[in-house]
Design a protein that fits this description.
Nucleotidyltransferase, domain 5, five-stranded mixed β-sheet, globular, 228 residues, alpha/beta
């Protein structure tokens, strides 16, 4: 197992780190602002600029904020329309000179924190709302909870995404998150729920016993799992 360049592509920032042969951080976590407009060309340029400052790596892993099928991005609601049907894995490999694999960002996040027992759910709270489900450690790809209706007049992302946080403030956003956690626990009946992403640190509610907040670095730490 060689070194992995691990990327967490988000609507607000792109986080990057090198992982060593054990899947541990070999560099500090680097963060650059996601360019606007966030077209594939501009995002790839930003990634290439960061990669050029790092030591050599053997492969690339990327978590992407949308549906990904066989390394091709199908949706990217918080980036740009040009991501539809974009061969991201192929283009990363071409630009960076190493084989690349890509999955949904919440999916990669979860690989760093799950315990591979029973049904485990990951929620990431950032620009949008990411969701990933695992059954005995097996990833169920591209579960798009964010754009599913919530109480008729909202989607989950509209209800507790970044725009809602900025509009409502922390107190009311936390009240909404309490209802969201109640809903997803009832819907999935998971053995464990892991809440990550940049806004997970804003949670001030009493969490159910099987729910815990995880560090945002998990978004890149899960990159090694894509090559197991």
């Amino acid at each position: 197992m060689g070194r992995t360049l691990s990327l967490d592509i988000g609507g607000t920032s792109i986080k990057t780190a090198l992982l060593d042969e054990r899947g541990k951080l070999a560099t500090k976590l680097l963060r650059v602002v996601t360019p606007r407009p966030a077209t594939p060309a501009r995002v790839l340029d930003a990634i290439a600029d960061v990669a050029a400052t790092l030591e050599p790596f053997d492969r690339v892993s990327a978590g992407f904020p949308g549906v990904v099928v066989n390394g091709v991005t199908r949706t990217a609601p918080n980036l740009h329309d040009e991501w539809r049907d974009f061969p991201l894995a192929k283009e990363l490999a071409r630009r960076l000179g190493a084989p690349a694999r890509v999955i949904n960002d919440a999916g990669m996040h979860g690989f760093a924190v799950i315990e591979n027992r029973g049904a485990e759910l990951v929620l990431t709270l950032g620009t949008g709302v990411g969701c990933a489900l695992y059954v005995d450690g097996t990833y169920v790809p591209n579960l798009e909870l964010a754009h599913h209706p919530f109480d008729g007049s909202h989607t989950y992302e509209g209800y507790v995404g970044l725009r809602a946080f900025e509009k409502l403030g922390k107190k009311r956003w936390n009240e909404r998150m309490e209802r969201v956690l109640e809903r997803v626990v009832t819907l999935f009946n998971p053995d464990a729920v892991y809440v990550g992403g940049g806004n997970a640190t804003q949670l001030e509610i009493e969490l159910p016993q099987n729910v815990r907040v995880v560090d945002n670095s998990a978004g890149v730490m899960g990159g090694a799992a894509l090559w197991r």
